[in-house]
Design goal:
The complex is a heterodimer. By secondary structure, chain A is an alpha+beta fold. In chain A, about 30% of the residues lie in helices and about 25% in strands. Chain A has four helices and 13 strands. In chain A, the strands form two sheets. Chain A has a seven-stranded antiparallel β-sheet. Chain A is globular, with a radius of gyration of 24 Å. By secondary structure, chain B is an all-alpha fold. Chain B has a single domain, classed as Arp2/3 complex 21 kDa subunit ARPC3. Chain B contains seven helices and no strands. In chain B, helix 1 runs antiparallel to helix 3, helix 3 packs across helix 7 and helix 6 packs across helix 7. The longest helix of chain B is centred in the last third of the chain and has 25 residues. Chain B is globular and about 45 Å long. The two termini of chain B are about 10 Å apart. In chain B, about 45% of the residues are buried. Classes of the chains: A alpha+beta, B mainly alpha. At the A-B interface, helix 1 and helix 2 of A face helix 1, helix 4 and helix 5 of B.
Chain lengths: ~290, ~160
């Protein structure tokens, strides 16, 4: 048996020092965001291999599902996808005409040209995080030029933004997290607002909307592009309830996100505006350019 | 006690605990998931208080913060205080029966959760309180089994003769 206290400071002193140090670290991380590199290093080289391991079974199931599916099922899938592709192609034709017209009108107004956006497909890892936070882990990180604050979308609408970055993975905060807010605009009336997360993945809250605002149930809300973090005109949600309590200065408006926040497996990382230039040329092969770049 | 040997078994158990804390569970079970990392580090602090002290607890807590996407230091400060309590009281806790130990573990887990909740509250992201303390309860229920498994592991690797 060794003596209880060998050398160095006592347990009490060490505890006090560590608690003070923890408080300093918490302030530095939360207030000044000074420790993102430390977090990124731990995430990439200690935690990510474990995350990868945890994700393996679900990948194996996916792989097994793919390789064991029958000939008939593949044929059916193929037919369905081809139909979908045809339908998408038709609507794209109309869209390209509209886009040309829009560009022409913009030229006539000598307005700012529209900028193209780059997107990259990322996969959500099948990992459980803190159930009280609406977060997901993506399998693309610093190695693919992902940046902090980058918007992520799925096939239906805006999902959230990247908050922490590792070399091979990144953490994204969903728009339904209580600490998340996104500037939005009502598609029909042009009314601007901010959509706050509620902690419920089926609900967003639009705050600071006066009682007499032009708003109806079923209205679609898009990103407004204000603040510069999210590209404009991506669908965010649909208004599901409007309550105008007498005596309160603002109406209580709830919206339902159109993105499949708790069901999507694949998401798109979006580069927009100036960040397009920063993306390394080597990565361009993986990415798809959305819209014409001017 | 061979301190150079002790981490040979402590680190693998911590890795398994970390894997368990990220393993996908159905949504209704997610809220009851015990804090595996905390339970395992509590066991090792009881078994080898000289090796597994507050400093190790702080490092493990920081790892927990990164995996959970929490503020760096949030879980670390909770773990440091829990291991501090064990470091001063381990001789008493060791002689308890398994049921009594489970009660002590419940108390320690609650202390840690309250500290984490406080920090969340201070930065304005306090979660809904409804099921928040359920992991402490499931942790205490699992403790006797976890204790037996880890004790047998430790004996196989003959890390320390006491406890």
């Amino acid at each position: 048996m060794q003596p209880l206290f060998l050398q160095g400071p006592s347990v009490t002193l060490r505890t006090i020092l560590l608690v003070i140090f923890s408080i300093v670290v918490m302030v530095a991380d939360h207030r000044w965001h000074a420790l993102e590199t430390v977090r990124g290093a731990i995430e990439s080289y200690v935690v990510y291999p474990l995350r990868y391991t945890v994700n393996l079974p679900s990948r194996l199931v996916d792989w097994g599902d793919e390789s064991l599916s029958s000939h008939q099922k593949l044929l059916d899938d193929n037919r369905k996808l081809q139909e979908q592709q045809l339908r998408a192609q038709v609507s794209l034709q109309k869209l390209s005409v509209l886009e040309k017209e829009n560009d022409r009108l913009r030229d006539m107004l000598s307005a700012q040209p529209k900028v193209g956006e780059l997107v990259l497909v990322a996969e959500i890892l099948g990992i459980d995080l803190d159930p009280y936070k609406q977060q997901v882990i993506l399998n693309k990180g610093h190695n693919k030029d992902v940046y902090i604050g980058q918007p992520i979308i799925d096939a239906w609408g805006v999902m959230g933004q990247v908050t922490h970055l590792g070399d091979f993975s990144s953490t994204a905060l969903l728009i339904s997290d209580p600490s998340h807010a996104i500037p939005v605009q009502v598609n029909r009336s042009g009314l601007r607002s901010t959509a706050f997360g509620t902690g419920n993945s089926q609900q967003l809250e639009l705050r600071y909307i006066p009682h007499n605002a032009d708003l109806e149930i079923g209205d679609v809300i898009n990103t407004s592009g204000l603040g510069g973090r999210f590209p404009p005109n991506y669908p965010v949600g649909r208004i599901i309830s409007i309550d105008r309590p007498t005596g309160e200065s603002f109406a209580t408006v709830l919206a339902e996100p159109v993105a499949h926040l708790d069901r999507s497996r694949e998401v798109l990382l979006v580069w927009h505006k100036l960040q397009v230039k920063d993306v390394g040329a080597s990565q361009q092969g993986d990415m798809v350019v959305k819209g014409e770049k001017k | 006690m061979r301190s150079q040997n002790c981490f040979r078994i402590v680190i693998p158990t911590l890795i398994v605990a970390l894997l368990l804390s990220m393993w996908p569970l159905p949504v209704w079970l997610e809220y009851a998931r015990p804090e595996w990392m905390v339970l395992v580090i509590i066991y090792w602090a009881l078994a080898m208080p000289e090796q597994i002290g507050v400093t190790v607890a702080w490092v493990v807590g920081l790892l927990l913060d990164v995996t959970q996407g929490a503020i760096l230091g949030q879980h670390a400060v909770g773990l440091v205080l829990v291991i501090f309590i064990i470091n001063t009281q381990y001789q008493r806790i060791r002689v308890f029966s398994l049921a009594q130990q489970a009660l002590v573990v419940l108390l320690l887990l609650l202390i840690k959760q309250v500290l984490v909740l406080w920090v969340s509250g201070i930065v304005g992201q306090a979660p809904d309180i409804g099921l928040y303390f359920l992991p402490a309860l499931t942790g205490a229920i699992i403790w006797p089994w976890l204790f037996i498994v880890l004790r047998d592991l430790r004996r196989r690797f003959t890390i320390s003769r006491s406890f």
